Give the backbone structure.
Amino acid sequence: MTPEDGILACAAAGGLTVYVEAERYRIAPGDVVGLIFSGRPAPVVRTREGKVTIEGYAVLHPAGRAVVIRTGEGAWVIPLVAFSRVARGEAASAPLFVGVGV
């Protein structure tokens, strides 16, 4: 078991990959750009048996200093600085932290 609750990593084909609880989700490159620069929610997708389904979304926290990733499994938080560094390729990966639901 890893000490992190999840991992956000760069994808070879562009975009980001989210590893959480033995599941692998993706955020497309165009959606990452829209999330960082415009604050638009980004769909979080998963591919199973050749079918792509939207499993959740990533959105900027109202305070603007974090990104919240929500799926049917739960919610995770990553600081916006760490998210941006992974998206730009400055860091290979960054840890996700379990978000508190309200």
User: Anything to note?
Assistant: The longest strand covers residues 51-60.
